[in-house]
Amino acid sequence: MVQHEFVVQTNWSGGRESVGDLKGDVLSEQISIPSGLGGNGTGTNPDELLVSAASSCYIISLAAVLERSGFNNITIDQSSIGTAIFENAKFRMDTIIHYPVISVETNQKELLTQKLPKLLKVADNNCMISNSIRGNVSVKIEPKIK
């Protein structure tokens, strides 16, 4: 078994209107409760970080899968939307949808169209975040080829 640790430090002082800090190896950001949930909306928040983690993990996995499959000049522009719900007196992330727009060399577009459904699944299965939230959050991929 291979193991790798990811260390972050968080600090918070005060109640729900306060602002905390999040620091990792590279990431340094203020955190608060989103304004849509009654907080002050300063910096980022755990919900946005979860969707960001899922989106960045998936786009990296997809790029690697496309490269290993022989595609060249890969460009992926992706937006991801996380939908949280309030259920059983708790908030939880229900669904994350990734919308990758994939561009490859012109002479490879037809091959990409044929292989894309399988490659999307392989990328999802290679994404650590998808694997970590599977069964709790529905992850959907709605791609376009550019």
From TrEMBL:
Highest taxon in the source lineage: Bacteria
Membrane-crossing residue ranges in chain numbering: none
Name assigned to this protein: SACOL1771 family peroxiredoxin
Pfam family membership, one: OsmC
SUPFAM superfamilies, alphabetized: OsmC-like
Gene3D superfamilies with a match to the protein in the record: 3.30.300.20
Organism of provenance: Staphylococcus pseudoxylosus
Lineage: Bacteria, Bacillati, Bacillota, Bacilli, Bacillales
